[in-house]
């Protein structure tokens, strides 16, 4: 599995809601415009990006930051709590 | 250097502005509530968190996601552009 933190800036509410709805299929909402998601591989990232491109408009900004196990280990909230505690393996 | 992507949810404008102003000392604003920053070490992260705790209120959420060189390499925007291209070494 490949873990990503996804952050987005979207102007229009309708578009923001559709983007959030799509990302919910892949992981958890952490903040208003931030998701932590798990993808099987690069191909699934490409598929997700194509889906989001069909929703996005010219004002939409989306960043996908990869998080390896070590980086997840070192990620934290302001209060020192762990972040990105994705399951290493997703049981289907 | 240690690279982080920092995402925050802040309700009050004044607090959000002060948090952004503080983060600007460490890196670049990427989105409305997202910065990419470089820190020398864990100690500098602790110092930064203490500074931000003095600004934050109970509604403030801040996440610090660590980005190693490999993760930065695999991070991208919706349009496939590179993200987190921090300089490996900061020339003082």
TrEMBL record, chains A, B:
Keywords attached to this Swiss-Prot or TrEMBL record, sorted alphabetically, are: Antiviral defense, Endonuclease, Hydrolase, Magnesium, Metal-binding, Nuclease
* GO molecular function terms noted in the UniProt entry: hydrolase activity; metal ion binding; RNA endonuclease activity
For whether the record's keyword set contains Amino-acid biosynthesis, the answer is: no
Q: What is this protein called?
A: CRISPR-associated endoribonuclease Cas2
User: Cofactor(s) for this protein?
Assistant: Mg(2+)
Q: What is the species listed in this Swiss-Prot or TrEMBL entry?
A: Candidatus Venteria ishoeyi
PANTHER family in the cross-refs: CRISPR-ASSOCIATED ENDORIBONUCLEASE CAS2 (PTHR34405), CRISPR-ASSOCIATED ENDORIBONUCLEASE CAS2 3 (PTHR34405:SF3)
Q: What class of enzyme is it?
A: hydrolase
Instruction: Write out the function statement from the record.
Output: CRISPR (clustered regularly interspaced short palindromic repeat), is an adaptive immune system that provides protection against mobile genetic elements (viruses, transposable elements and conjugative plasmids). CRISPR clusters contain sequences complementary to antecedent mobile elements and target invading nucleic acids. CRISPR clusters are transcribed and processed into CRISPR RNA (crRNA). Functions as a ssRNA-specific endoribonuclease. Involved in the integration of spacer DNA into the CRISPR cassette.
Gene behind the chain? cas2_3
For this entry, list what GO says about its biological process. Answer: defense response to virus; maintenance of CRISPR repeat elements
A Pfam family hit: CRISPR_Cas2
Q: What is the lineage of its organism?
A: Bacteria, Pseudomonadati, Pseudomonadota, Gammaproteobacteria, Thiotrichales
